[in-house]
Amino acid sequence: MKERVEAVLEQVRPALQADGGDIELLGVTEDGIVKVQLTGACGSCPFSTMTLKHAVEGRLKDQIPEVKEVQSF
């Protein structure tokens, strides 16, 4: 599943990079928890929680039904 998650993150990455940020995949657990780190401008942005839940988690859940949650570290 990690490869599938990475492929979806590559779809989201250009939008994050356009705003001076990025996303790093830290890991995927067997129970469907995706662990990421927002970096650059996204790491300190007050809207990072919305970005994480709506843009990242929403797209991952749409494309990979096994994903239960995305957590940022």
From TrEMBL:
InterPro entries: FSCA_dom_sf (IPR034904), NIF_FeS_clus_asmbl_NifU_C (IPR001075)
Gene Ontology molecular function terms on file: iron ion binding; iron-sulfur cluster binding; structural molecule activity
Domain of life: Bacteria
Domain NIF system FeS cluster assembly NifU C-terminal span(s) in chain numbering: 5-71
Record-linked Pfam families: NifU
GO biological process terms held by the UniProt record: iron-sulfur cluster assembly
Family: Belongs to the NifU family.
Protein name per its UniProtKB record: NifU family protein
Species of the source: Geovibrio thiophilus
